[in-house]
Write a structure and sequence with these properties.
1 helix; transmembrane; membrane; transmembrane helix
């Protein structure tokens, strides 16, 4: 037994914002995506260095607190 396929009219569910018409390039009507962002000219070595230093400082503080608690309470 076969049923006939229903025909539906296509309708726009969501429309782009009005300012989308003024965008020139990158991402289409909804703005840039993570792949459309421009490449940075420099490297991220400074950011990596800062994050690594902050991580080391946090680990040293935790180690210091652990040593303090170990000798204080034992």
């Amino acid at each position: 037994m076969k049923f006939p396929k229903e025909k539906r009219e296509s309708q726009t569910v969501v429309t782009p914002p009005p300012e989308a018409l003024q965008r020139v390039d990158g991402g289409g009507p909804w703005g840039p995506t993570q792949f459309d962002l421009p490449d940075r000219s420099g490297s991220n070595s400074q950011t990596i260095l800062i994050v690594a230093l902050v991580g080391v400082v946090v680990l040293l503080i935790l180690a210091g607190l652990w040593v303090f608690a170990y000798f204080r309470f034992s």
